[in-house]
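Much of what follows relies on a compact textual record of a protein's fold. The record below shows the convention in full:
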Amino acid sequence: MKILTLISFFISIIATFALAIGLVGNIKQSFDPKKKASVGLCIGISMYLYIILLLITGLFGIIKQHYYLAALLIFAIIPFILGHYSSFNKLRLYTIYQIISYTISSIILAYAYLAL
């Protein structure tokens, strides 16, 4: 369980940094399109791994009776909720909300790692 929370924590941190780099790259006009594509691929892969690992960690937390890990299930759904309500005009705001949710889930994962 500790290894799963540690891996989920690292993927959460990677996803946070990828989104932050993507946000900065989207603001800059001189950002190379090939670098934008690489950052976009990193964001997509890290978001996919983030969602899968949070689902697994949350479900194992419920099974092992660590019910505070069930909060991670909400963070696995948040990208879909935010994506449903966001538009292209509010993409920066959506990205900031994602970074905040990744940071909060990282804090929960760090607490879970230390508590286990």
Observations:
- Residues 33-63 form the longest helix (31 residues).
- The mean pLDDT is 87.
- The radius of gyration is 15 Å.
